[in-house]
């Protein structure tokens, strides 16, 4: 859960998010090295007089042509690796369908016969003590921990976006089209997200709450809800 003084990402709760955080740190270090080098060269040029060594130097031109290409490769390779990992969906243990409406979500557990529900934001006037304003819902998504989860996402009216930052998931919900994403939670907990596509007047009132539990607790919950 993010807080108002937080400068970095939320704590990663899935392998994909861990990879995204590491790539972010890697890219920042590359940017820091480039800025430091440019600042050093600018200072050097301002402090020294121009000479033929700085005006006509084929070796320097060759270096500053090849070096950016190497930097781009160092950024592109891990980026492509993460993109392929995010698109890879291998034999999920559970498939969940999320349907966006104005302004609530409908969830269907397609592996169960009759397990679906609507998820509305809890109004501030009804919010229990200690719960998060504009983020808590009346029905949470409950999933088993350390299990591959596939989410099929669509919309019923306008564009929406199903996003949970701590899981590294953000997928558009488009009417008439099915998009899919996947994730694995690495620890138990409650993870919050919101609709990340401007979808109308109450766009900010479409929270997403994912509760990750051990498998036996999920089985007990699914039996209770579907009965």
On the 0-100 scale, what is the average pLDDT? 88
Estimate nothing, just give the exact number of structural domains.
2
Order of the strands making up the biggest sheet: 3-2-1-5-8
Strand content: 25-35%
Distance between the termini: 32 Å
**CATH class designation of the largest domain:** Mainly Beta
Profile the largest sheet.
5 strands, mixed
Number of separate helices: 4
Instruction: Report the order of strands and helices.
Output: HHHEEEEEEEEEEH
CATH architecture of the largest domain: Sandwich
The CATH homologous superfamily of the largest domain is called Cupredoxins -  blue copper proteins
CATH third-level topology of the largest domain: Immunoglobulin-like
Q: Helix fraction? A: 25-40%
Strand tally is 10
The stretches of 5 or more residues where confidence is low (pLDDT under 50) are: none
Structural class designation: alpha+beta
- The gyration radius over C-alpha positions equals 24 Å
